[in-house]
Amino acid sequence: MYLTQLMTQSRFRFLISGFVAILAVFLCSVSYAADPLPSWNDGTAKEAILYFVNAVTDKNSKDYVEPAERIATFDNDGTLWVEYPMYTQVLFAFDRVKKLAPQHPEWKIKQPFKALLEGDMKTVGASGMKGLMEIVMATHSGMSAAEFEKEVSDWLATTQQAKFKRLYTELIYQPQLELLDYLRANGFKTFIVSGGGIAFMRTFSEKAYGISPEQVVGSSVVAEFQVKDGKPVIIRQPKIAFINDKAGKPVGIYQHIGRRPILAFGNSDSDIQMIEYTMAGEGRRLGLFVHHTDEEREYSYDRKSHVGTLDKALDRAAAEGWIIVDMKKDWKKVFPEN
Amino acid sequence: MYLTQLMTQSRFRFLISGFVAILAVFLCSVSYAADPLPSWNDGTAKEAILYFVNAVTDKNSKDYVEPAERIATFDNDGTLWVEYPMYTQVLFAFDRVKKLAPQHPEWKIKQPFKALLEGDMKTVGASGMKGLMEIVMATHSGMSAAEFEKEVSDWLATTQQAKFKRLYTELIYQPQLELLDYLRANGFKTFIVSGGGIAFMRTFSEKAYGISPEQVVGSSVVAEFQVKDGKPVIIRQPKIAFINDKAGKPVGIYQHIGRRPILAFGNSDSDIQMIEYTMAGEGRRLGLFVHHTDEEREYSYDRKSHVGTLDKALDRAAAEGWIIVDMKKDWKKVFPEN
Known about the structure:
Chain A is of the alpha/beta class.
């Protein structure tokens, strides 16, 4: 029997439409069940995330949270991108000292600039937080907002990370990109809450993470409005306005976001207060830390590291119900493909 | 001929489907042409707004702006709600002094508290900005973020404005609510950028204007993270962190939003710098001021007013291309229905 003849038989037409209906249901359920976090291995961390998102988005759940209150905050250095062996923004500041040196002959005799220009990193390190702040102020202020943005963008577009020989903005964590997408698809607003400079991060946050500038919270310098050559501009001043780190993180969240997060993700003891503040809210909450355990694919560091120290948080995690994400075990993939 | 017979005639069926198609097109064009700003009278201001929004959202326009860059900022007092004869937040502070007086016996002899408690507003006024700041600090700090939010919400829910005998949150401008909706429907992000307290405004911005807390930029006090009785809380400190007024507005926009607005709306000389900063960006921009000209439906005040002084901006508007919205002439309606 030819197909066209078959088609005209009403019983067969009925079978066909039944088959189409089943196929449609099957396709829908497949699309529903598709793994939203394909770069996360099965395990406690992934389960905790999926369970949490289901619980707060299911209208019939006792843990349901209105979309407006679905605030998720992420640290940046070591949580969304590589921070080891040195914070990217510090490397930017160092490079900028070298670039600006011809205009600053005084740096030849002034520490820590002298040491930095001579490659004597031991002396730079010995200058401590005071020395680092002098370097940051000298390289992050005294220009307009637009000029600073261009400096950062140009540097990020041309500077490769030493170990991976890739741009820093390519050394972002694929599992976290999936998590950010998954949260946004479930009505969350995603924020960066980082000790890094707010203006530094805003140059790449939208392109790298899909996080718009107004959803970036960070440290800042004082800024001034000036009319320069008849043109209104913002000029960055050599004075700290706010340090968005440690106990500063909940404060930054309060001042900038105005709502307590229901999910917070960090990677170091500097994130403890943000996680504490998040977890102390009413209803179901989720607090997570990335534990850098993967010497091969990224880096391995924690309790004794000079950057991203993860020590007290590791001790407290079990008792507090914080989730420790083991990079080696929990992440199928670390970075996006080239 | 019966209708059923008519229906079976193929020529008539053709006519019917033609009619349905025309009706559909008509309904679509009606919905397209429906006035998005029904409480705005026809005139220069309304035309300028409609023209601007069309220009920046039409992909074929030379003035097209990507949705991500469609940032609109609105002053609050006098631009979105009533500010006359005294800023609402100042009235809140005055009422709070009275409420707190039993716990502050020292206020019986300490100015400007003594004068305020005795109803001697002339002496309160003579204490100037210094006196006002003392009152604000005494009433806006020393409590947790949650406690302050409750104080403000309770006061706003129970206190009537003197002239209109309505809650302050009902004395918001209907034409501006339509404009906010219209802008958001056209892909804009709408922000409040006001000299008012950020935490004060956040208690009602979402319900009153559809503007979420994280899209409110305002003045702030220093805040501290503390663990109090084992519970992590934010405590408001008696120290100004930032004054988001005059030249502070573009700075607040830079620090908080991180992008230059393409539309800004104010109502006083305190908004001049925000409008200057907005208009100085590249491409088409729109800057507007509400001019309070309606003694009958609201208030009439401008150059010599003690609140919301509109003087220099009126002089500069024509030359700078700023739009002056004449409340009496341009607004069909001032407040939403009861």
